[in-house]
């Protein structure tokens, strides 16, 4: 079984769309494009944006691209739940598919009872524990700390429903929201080696996530507000480490 594939892409990103279409068609995979949302912030912040919370925790606003990305992924989940498919593969338009991409999706569906959402790529390398061999050379893994990124993932209906609830209010980037497993309690895993690779020659349509250095008082306020959330995260990570250490015995 191959889950339906949706590629999030700006409607006018013709070169990116041609790049993704060529890869997917070469593999004989059905797909569709979802026109990414480009919010007009001159009309004000989206109603769901929790600006006070965002500034307290991060010290700066989300960018237009980050807001658009957040809303676009939520739209993909909503459209998925409006249908009857059990799984959905979501891709962004700046990834290179590995030659065994289709076989990897089939293998994930064959192990569907073991996960809720599976990341196909991560921005950063993270330590992980192997859960199951999906196919020769590729493993379903559980990360101790998530590698970030929404370039590619597969999710089931439980994950889509819960993530929609979890992201009703927007105060962080969409990958940060997905990564907060200690809050949404989904089985959030990954595939290693990755099934997709980010194409760095394509400049991100989200825009740079680097910001100007904050003044000292703003950094102090940010660290104060981050403290409680970081403690919850560390308890979550430590729980995983203890659990897997016990299972290895």
Can you characterise this structure?
- One of its GO terms (biological process) is lipopolysaccharide biosynthetic process.
- Pathway: Bacterial outer membrane biogenesis; lipooligosaccharide biosynthesis; Glycan metabolism; lacto-N-neotetraose biosynthesis.
- Keywords: Lipopolysaccharide biosynthesis, Transferase.
- Residues 4-177 form the Glycosyl transferase family domain.
- The chain has 249 residues and is an alpha/beta fold.
- The radius of gyration is 18 Å and the shape is globular.
- The chain has 8 helices and 10 strands.
- The strands form 2 sheets. Strands 2-1-3-8-5-9-7-6 form an 8-stranded mixed β-sheet, with helices on both faces.
- The two termini are 35 Å apart.
- The chain has a single domain, classed as Alpha-Beta Complex (Spore Coat Polysaccharide Biosynthesis Protein SpsA, Chain A), CATH 3.90.550.
- The mean pLDDT is 90.
The percentage helix is: 40-55%
Strand content: 15-25%
Radius of gyration, in angstroms, nearest whole number = 18 Å
CATH class: Alpha Beta
DSSP summary, beta strand count: 10
Number of helices: 8
The second-level CATH architecture is: Alpha-Beta Complex
Q: Spatial order of the strands in the main sheet? A: 2-1-3-8-5-9-7-6
Give the H and E element order. Answer: EHEHHEEHEEEEHHHEEH
Average residue-wise pLDDT: 90
Q: Give the helix/strand class.
A: alpha/beta
Any idea how many domains? 1
Question: What is the terminal separation in angstroms?
Answer: 35 Å
Protein name: Glycosyl transferase, family 25
GO molecular function: transferase activity
Keywords: Lipopolysaccharide biosynthesis, Transferase
Pathway: Bacterial outer membrane biogenesis; lipooligosaccharide biosynthesis; Glycan metabolism; lacto-N-neotetraose biosynthesis
């Amino acid at each position: 079984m191959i889950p339906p594939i949706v590629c999030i892409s700006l409607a006018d990103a013709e070169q990116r769309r041609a790049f993704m279409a060529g890869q997917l068609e070469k593999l004989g995979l059905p797909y569709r494009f979802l026109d990414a949302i480009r919010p007009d912030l001159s009309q004000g912040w989206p109603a769901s944006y929790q600006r006070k919370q965002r500034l307290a925790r991060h010290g700066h606003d989300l960018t237009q691209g980050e807001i658009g990305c957040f809303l676009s992924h939520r739209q993909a989940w909503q459209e998925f739940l409006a249908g009857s498919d059990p799984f959905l593969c979501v891709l962004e338009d700046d990834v290179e598919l590995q030659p065994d991409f289709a076989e990897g999706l089939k293998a994930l569906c064959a192990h569907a009872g073991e996960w809720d959402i599976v990341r196909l790529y991560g921005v950063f390398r993270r330590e992980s524990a192997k859960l199951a061999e999906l196919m020769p050379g590729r493993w379903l893994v559980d990360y101790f700390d998530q590698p970030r990124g929404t370039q590619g993932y597969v999710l089931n209906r439980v994950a889509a429903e819960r993530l929609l609830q979890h992201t009703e209010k927007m105060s962080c980037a969409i990958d940060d929201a997905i990564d907060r497993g200690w809050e949404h309690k989904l089985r959030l895993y990954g595939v290693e080696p990755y099934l997709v690779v980010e194409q760095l020659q394509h400049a991100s349509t989200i825009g740079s996530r680097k910001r100007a250095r904050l003044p000292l008082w703003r950094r102090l306020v940010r660290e104060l507000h981050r403290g409680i959330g970081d403690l919850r995260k560390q308890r979550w990570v430590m729980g995983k480490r203890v659990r897997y250490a016990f299972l290895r015995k």
